[in-house]
Write a structure and sequence with these properties.
Shape: globular
Radius of gyration: 21 Å
Structural class: alpha/beta
Distance between the termini: 39 Å
Strand content: 25-35%
Length: 381
């Protein structure tokens, strides 16, 4: 890069690379900090991405192919006493409610796009720039070094993720169960959602698992044999897809919701910084909105920088405050909504179970409210 960078992005995950590509498209010179990574274990994560995220990634030519981005045609959410809410892409008149995206495939697409973008220089260490954007994730060392308080509410739960193969086809349906202990099981469709199997007949039976379980129960589930774990899943999913077989290792991590006290500011030398993605906020995964929020952050920041007055620097404090105001409200709303749902099912004393399941059944019959909620989740509202 002949001229010095205008923006330095610390963190080369999905959010950091997406931001780098968005800014480079607007002719902003970017340094992307990506230290050499040690060989990683198998990544079993999959993200539920909404239409807004899909549109953004497609505009960057970083959307994975159809084998790694599965459309969700329907979503079924089950309560612990017969309550049920169902969403349908057909009723919403959209292609899909969301897409279940394989994380390694998405990361590779973004990495390839960065490599061919001449305005992005990948560096091993941070470099001086008018604006530094911190996209290092929830354990950000830069945020900690800046003394920014990260207000964390820890849930007494761990998430368990894995890949599965079901006995019966998933038919492009994302299924979720809340139980009386507040645990949340999600079985997300992977592969071909159109009912066409590959030559091994396994494509439309592949699933991504996200299971939020009590932190004391998580070690027990992780220690189970593959057969025992499959049996536990079959029971928790009420045999909806028949036998469930592990096809990967299991991964687990503690759950929390958090938000940074400040999202923007200045270093001691007067240069500006901003937080984005999990470095700024995290939410409970039950609504699958974590990465959607992070991509919405970088879309907002990029747009504000693109639309700035010609005489304003990319690190202008007024621009950055505008970014923080624009995103904090949306993030807080989603954080409170997911936390409220988690808390609603975390208590089993009467009459709460009957009331919440009655509420689910009533909500399922309210077309206008369901439509509005669905549009919000899809990023289309």
């Amino acid at each position: 890069m002949a001229l010095p960078p205008e923006v330095c992005i610390r963190g080369a995950g999905i959010v950091g690379r997406a931001l780098a590509l968005l800014l480079a498209r607007e002719r902003v010179r970017v340094a992307l900090v990506a230290p050499a990574a040690a060989p990683a274990a198998q990544d079993v994560r999959a993200y539920a991405l909404n239409a807004a995220s899909k549109n953004l990634l497609e505009s960057l030519r970083a959307w994975p192919d159809a084998t790694h981005a599965t459309p969700v045609r329907e979503m079924q959410v089950h309560g612990d006493e017969g309550g049920r809410v169902q969403f349908s892409a057909a009723r919403q008149k959209v292609e899909a409610l969301a897409w279940i995206v394989d994380v390694p495939a998405l990361e590779q697409q973004l990495s390839d796009a960065v490599r061919f973008q001449p305005r992005i220089e990948v560096v091993a260490d941070p470099v001086p720039a008018a604006l530094t954007v911190v996209c290092e994730g929830r354990a950000s060392a830069t945020r900690e070094g800046l003394g920014v308080r990260y207000e964390i509410t820890r849930y007494p739960q761990h998430a368990i993720a894995a890949r599965l193969e079901a006995e019966r086809p998933h038919d492009g349906i994302a299924r979720q169960w809340f139980d009386e202990r507040g645990e949340v099981l999600a079985l997300l469709p992977l592969g071909d959602a159109g009912g066409v199997s590959d030559r091994h007949g396994a494509f439309d039976r592949s699933l991504a698992l996200v299971w939020s379980v009590d932190q004391l129960r998580a070690p027990e589930l992780l220690a189970q044999s593959a057969d025992e774990f499959g049996a536990s899943l079959r029971a928790a999913s009420h045999d909806a897809l028949g036998a469930l077989t592990l096809t990967s290792e299991r991964a687990a991590w503690p759950l929390q919701r958090a938000i940074a006290e400040r999202w923007t500011g200045q270093f001691a030398d007067g240069r500006s910084w901003a937080l984005a993605g999990d470095a700024a906020h995290t939410v409970h995964p039950l609504a699958g909105q974590g990465l959607n929020l992070g991509l919405a952050d970088v879309a907002a920041l990029s747009n504000i920088i693109k639309d700035r007055d010609y005489w304003r620097s990319v690190g202008d404090a007024r621009l950055l405050r505008r970014y923080e105001r624009a995103r904090r409200t949306d993030v807080l709303s989603m954080s409170l909504a997911t936390d409220g749902l988690q808390q609603l099912f975390a208590h089993s004393a009467d009459p709460l179970p009957a009331l919440r399941n009655w509420g689910m059944r009533g909500f399922d019959r309210t077309r206008l409210v369901k439509h509005w909620i669905a549009r919000q989740a899809m990023g289309l509202q």
